[in-house]
Amino acid sequence: MLVLASESLSLLRNALKSAKFDCPKEAKMDFSMVDIAFWQETEPAFRTLQEALAVDPLRQDTQTRHAVSQWEAELAHYLFHVFDRDALTNPDCPDDILQRQLTARQELASSYRKHKARKDVLALVE
To answer: What is the tens place of the pLDDT at every residue in 15-57?
Structure first.
């Protein structure tokens, strides 16, 4: 679970850089506020999941499996909410910038969907 959360934050950082810069690998960006907000804002859902797993660590109960699925869904929702809020800020931006932002969002979606840690978490509830 922590691997997925941590690596999802990394995907979000990379997507934000890709949305904001032509050469994201060369760009420097301070993500300290994004990092702090990520952990603070996703912690309640994680704690709920942690409590469910403490009672049913083998995930035999439907409610526990639902808690795992719910946590993953909330994590994904958070990633896209923050990306949209931080990257898609100017409705009047030039087409080339909008295209770069939308491409970065599509890459975030694809990378998150294909991520091994996500697949591992979802496999826990199959």
So the answer is: 999 999 998 888 888 999 999 999 999 999 999 999 999 999 9
Q: Where are the domains of the chain?
A: 2-123
Residue type for position 18:
S
Maximum pairwise Cα distance, the chain: 52
Residues in the chain: 126
Alpha-carbon distance of 27 to 50, in angstroms, equals 36
Residue 112 near residue 118, CB atoms below 8 Å: yes
Q: Per residue in 1-23, pLDDT tens?
A: 999 999 999 999 999 999 999 98
Q: How many CB atoms lie within 10 A of CB 94?
A: 9
H/E element holding 40? Answer: helix 32-55
CA 126/CA 121 separation, integer angstroms? 10
pTM above 0.90, yes or no: yes
Per-residue exposure over 26-47, b if at least 16 CB sit within 10 Å of its own CB, e if not: eeeeeeeeeeeebeeebeebbe
